[in-house]
Specification:
- By secondary structure, this protein is mainly beta.
- It has three domains: 7-131, Immunoglobulin-like (Sandwich), CATH 2.60.40; 141-218, Immunoglobulins (Immunoglobulin-like); 226-309, Immunoglobulins (Immunoglobulin-like, Sandwich).
- The protein has helices spanning 7-23, 317-326, 345-364; strands at residues 42-45, 50-55, 60-67, 70-74, 77-78, 85-90, 94-99, 108-116, 119-138, 142-145, 150-159, 163-169, 182-185, 194-201, 208-225, 228-230, 236-245, 249-254, 257-258, 266-270, 274-279, 288-296, 299-309.
- Strands 1, 3, 4, 5, 8, 9, 11 and 13 form an eight-stranded mixed sheet that branches. Strands 10, 12, 14, 15, 17, 20 and 21 form a seven-stranded mixed sheet that branches. A five-stranded mixed sheet has the order 16-23-22-18-19, with no helix packed on it.
- Strand 3 (60-67) and strand 4 (70-74) form a beta hairpin.
- The radius of gyration is 49 Å and the shape is rod-shaped.
- It starts with 6 loop residues before the first helix and ends in a 6-residue tail after the last helix.
- The model is unreliable at 1-11, 14-33 and 316-370 (pLDDT under 50).
């Protein structure tokens, strides 16, 4: 293994190893007077490149970079088999290497070993690798019955260790629910169903965010069901609104008989949150009490509604005109009104007296002598 190396290289290697042994336990610090400085601790993000610099001067005759006991470079000669490690500077003032695409296993101490006047010395730098937060395990979407205890978990990795936070995404809920990897909900209610968001953050990069959907099952309850009055022969609609998870199935009954679309002139329309019965031409037999039943596997709810008859108002134009005329009071100049509707009694009497007086007078006019 050593046959291809020159005597100078072998000697340099031996000197470097001796230098490391001499420096063990008492490393030369970057602040020591008269010694070329290495960098302070270097912090990089996973996937980025790290440059390790060692400042030298004219007194330095030989240089090398090591990772623990592994030699990376001696002068211009590369000893590391890792293609990510490259020499970036070997001058009279600087001896630097670069580690590309840094990963967690690259973290640790690195040593710049130099020889001055046949006296080897070392200076160390610690490489710190930061890792963005990443959620590696999170609870799946779940469906539970109302009143059940729910436990959600969110496991994340990163360096520094990320802070894990749970938030309930609801317009009525503000702020954090839990600042922990685990979220415990005791006796969950229907109002607590929805999306729960887990966020892992450590300021290295943007937080990693994942969501879990929690569905809370509950039996139906009817929101609205109203009585309705319809004239005979007109269209009438009965409606029943209900909420349930899973969605309810609706059934209509009149007395003890179930109402179906097979009945002539009747249409039953069911949707997720309501059911509607349409009577296209209401008859005497359609009036009565109806029961709406909303049902799912957790239970049922019902409500009664009444379809009742209302009298249709008269629509005769002549009758309406006569009624209006009879109720219209006299108005205009000289009209007398005592606050009651119709012709004032005093004016009516005066008109009748004048008429009775004029009729006999006209009959006597031909024989009148002037």
């Amino acid at each position: 293994m050593w046959s291809g190396l020159s005597c100078r290289t072998l000697w340099s290697l031996l000197m470097l190893r001796c230098g490391l042994v001499q420096a063990a336990g008492v490393p030369v610090r970057s602040g020591d007077a008269g010694f070329p400085k290495a960098m302070d601790n270097v912090t990089v993000r996973q996937g980025d490149s790290a440059i390790l610099r060692c400042v030298v001067d004219s007194r330095v005759t030989r240089v090398a970079w090591l990772n623990r006991s592994t030699i990376l470079y001696t002068g211009n000669d590369k000893w590391s088999i890792d293609p990510r490690v490259v020499l970036v500077a070997n001058t009279k003032s600087q001896y630097s290497i670069e580690i590309q695409n840094v990963d967690i296993y690259d973290e640790g101490p690195y040593t710049c070993s130099v020889q001055t006047d046949n006296h080897p010395k070392t200076s160390r730098v610690h490489l710190i690798v930061q890792v963005p937060p990443r959620i590696v395990e999170i609870s799946s979407n779940i469906a539970v019955n109302e009143g059940t205890n729910v436990s959600l978990s969110c496991i994340a990795t990163g360096r520094p260790e990320p802070v894990v936070t749970w938030r309930y995404l609801s317009p009525k809920a503000h702020g954090f629910v839990s600042e922990d990897e685990y979220l415990e909900i005791t006796g969950i209610t229907r109002e607590q169903s929805g999306l729960y968001e887990c966020s892992a953050a450590n300021d290295v990069s943007s937080p990693d965010v994942r969501r879990v959907k929690v569905t809370v099952n509950y039996p139906p309850y009817i929101l609205d069901a109203r009585n309705i009055g319809v004239p005979l022969g007109h269209q009438g609609i009965l409606q029943c609104d209900a909420l349930a998870v899973p969605a309810a199935d609706f059934f209509w009954y009149k007395e003890d008989k179930r109402l179906t679309e097979s009945r002539k002139g009747v249409k039953v329309e069911n949707r997720e949150t309501y059911s509607r019965v349409t009577f296209f031409n209401v008859s005497e037999q359609d009036y009565g009490n109806y029961t709406c039943v909303a049902m799912n596997r957790l239970g049922h709810s019902n409500a009664s509604v009444i379809l009742f008859e209302i009298l249709q108002p008269s629509s005769s134009p002549l009758l309406q005109e006569e009624t209006t005329a009879a109720l219209t009071p006299l108005k205009g100049p000289g009209a007398v009104h005592d606050g009651n509707s119709g012709c004032p009694p005093c004016l009516l009497c005066t008109a009748l007296s004048l008429l009775l007086f004029l009729i006999p007078l006209s009959l006597l006019l031909p024989s009148a002598q002037f």
